[in-house]
Design goal:
Chain lengths: 101, 171
């Protein structure tokens, strides 16, 4: 095991940070969903790295549950995007103020 | 040798994740995410999680990304999409996370990996898939069923949300 665990943590931290910045900065709602995927992948890398270093396969099982949640998020999120685009003809999140009082 | 592979995968993953956020065209962002998914799968192979690498390629690159590309091309976006005005907030959150990462890496090496004791130790090699299945269908059977229920609810929700008459009636 020549690669230390901290390297994987730094890599996953960089990925998660990029995802957070993407969610907060971009206005395109599709890019926001892609950034959420980035964050989920960062946690997956953490899970697999810890699973390898602690010699416990449970970490890899939890990646499956993350994968399930990611698939559900994509399906519902893209359906919401299509429904929003049908009513507003845009995917710029600044235009979606229906819930703003 | 292992470190060379890790640094190659890490550099490509970091670069493509920055590209996903930074590129203006959503199609290019999605394609950058595709490259990232393949390199994450490569990273899983170096971590001896071969089954997860295959699942990563099949589910993420095969299903999720195709769905994204389908929606991006369906909506056919022509407008120029710029960054959000919330950037001071993003800078604050980002700076906090960077400081935390620096502190965590400065404190590295203070813990040692725990010694494997359980029966759940068969990991890596040809037994990886068998080990995952063994744990998934015994210890984590109930979360597995809950995950299938989540998928069912998401499928029904997506169909109901994307149905045409519902969106028009509430518009």
């Amino acid at each position: 095991m020549t690669v230390p665990l901290s390297y994987y943590l730094v890599l996953s931290g960089i990925m998660f940070l990029t995802g957070v910045v993407g969610v907060l900065l971009r206005r395109n709602i599709i890019i926001i969903l892609l950034s959420v995927e980035l964050m989920l992948n960062a946690t997956n890398i953490n899970f697999v790295a810890f699973s390898q270093y602690f010699h416990n396969v449970a970490g890899q099982v939890f990646v499956f549950f993350t994968l399930t949640v990611a698939a559900a998020e994509v399906a519902v999120g893209l359906a919401i995007i299509i429904a929003l685009y049908r009513t507003k003809s845009t995917i710029n999140i600044d235009e979606f103020q229906l819930l703003k009082w | 040798m292992e470190q060379a592979f890790f640094f190659y995968f890490a550099c490509v993953i970091a670069a493509t994740s920055v590209l996903v956020v930074a590129l203006r065209n959503p199609i290019y962002s999605t394609l950058a995410l595709l490259v990232m998914f393949f390199h994450v799968a490569g990273l899983y192979v170096t971590l001896h999680a071969e089954f997860l690498a295959a699942v990563q390629i099949i589910v993420y690159a095969g299903a999720i990304l195709v769905l994204y590309l389908f929606v991006v091309m369906l909506l056919n976006l022509k407008q120029d999409v710029r960054y959000h005005r919330q950037w001071p907030m993003a800078a604050a959150v980002g700076a906090t996370l960077v400081i935390e990462a620096i502190i965590l890496t400065a404190m590295k090496g203070s813990t040692t990996p725990a010694v494997a004791t359980d029966a759940e130790t068969a990991i890596g090699g040809a037994g990886n898939t068998a080990a995952i299945g063994d744990v998934l269908y015994t210890t984590y059977l109930f979360p597995f069923e809950v995950a299938s229920l989540i998928l069912l609810v998401a499928m029904i929700g997506a169909i109901v949300l994307a149905k045409k008459d519902v969106g028009e009636r509430e518009a």
